Amino acid sequence: MKMSETPKTDIMRLLPDEIAELISGEPYSQPAYRAKQIFSWLSRGVGFDGMSNLPKSLREALYQNCIIKLPAIADKLVSAVDGTVKYLFRLHDGHLIEAVLMSYEHGYTLCVSSQVGCRMGCRFCASTKSGRVRNLSASEILGEVIAACLDAGVRVSNIVMMGIGEPLDNFDETVRFLRLVSHPDGLSVGLRHISVSTCGIVPRIRELAALELPVTLSISLHASDDAERSATMPINDAYPIEELMSACRDWFLDTGRRISFEYTLISGKNDSAASARRLAALLTSRMRDGGHTLPLHVNLIPLNDVADTGLHRTAAQNVEIFRKTLAAHGVNATVRRRLGPDIEAACGQLRIDRERGERTEGERI
Ligand code: SAH
What we know:
By secondary structure, the protein is α/β, with parallel strands linked by helices. It contains twelve helices and 16 strands. Strands 3-4-5-6-9-10-11-12-15-16 form a ten-stranded mixed beta sheet. A two-stranded parallel sheet has the order 1-2. Strands 7-8 form a two-stranded antiparallel ribbon. α1 crosses α2 and α10 packs parallel to α11. The radius of gyration is 22 Å and the shape is globular. 43% of the residues are buried. S-adenosyl-L-homocysteine binds next to β10 and β12.
């Protein structure tokens, strides 16, 4: 790019009101109602050429001055077991991210990435191994949803921000993405059907609560006390469990939305009966108001083994013992079904493998 050239507008990052403002000025000089048309076309993955209800001169001006940041499909793995689709997307600057499309009885759920890499350093996670490269823009996160819907020919009804990256470490673009994807003139995915998952950045949890977006907050807890949590999650040194629980309690009191706690079971680290009892005691004592335990849910996740971590999945029978122990102490938990076990559906692994060039051609679809 020449120094004098103005960068193109990342138009997929703009809400209809912002598009209206953009096109009211030079070189477009267009009425505001065109914004809704443009926004709606973009949400369906249509390029400027295909925006058939716009005047040709406007399409041409958009083409000259704007960029559509839709990711390209670099690879796609389809599970022979359950049809789960894992996308490896290539961004405009060549970086790779992942998204996973899962089919449930109630519709399709897409798991999206929020950053290229991650700097949170959780020991069991593939996404954080080589740190954070950069944040995704809201347009790139939205692009994952649009590209997956287009490719699979489906409508996504639920979104989980549980792919590569820490959404609350990319706060502004995450919030912008939530506004874009839920907008009625666009994909219109209800905020109630979107989960924002975090390793526990307490000030950002409070900031999100203040925005009063009715999303589901998912807390990656993975431990029953500070010693256990700090052993695998460095974020715990900055925001220990007591502070995290206090933010979670306030989240519920502010928003009325039930919190979901994720607990990945790691053999010999956090999966003993003592851990289960401590976890139940923690949740029933800290997530409490007016003599009642607040509505919450625990998801037990069998660890996806990641090379070089030395950490391994808890055996199935011990997962069941852990679940029953929790239940006996007043906390209901669901054991997460492993989707796409044959396609490395745990986010971050495909990108890492691809960058190291380890994956064999035989695994390709
Ligand atoms: N950074 C966010 C969202 C991305 S991780 C967060 O921490 O919540 C999405 C979920 O996958 C988190 O609960 C994370 O702890 C979990 N996870 C990461 N690596 C895993 C692995 N190897 N096996 C099982 N779950 C894993």
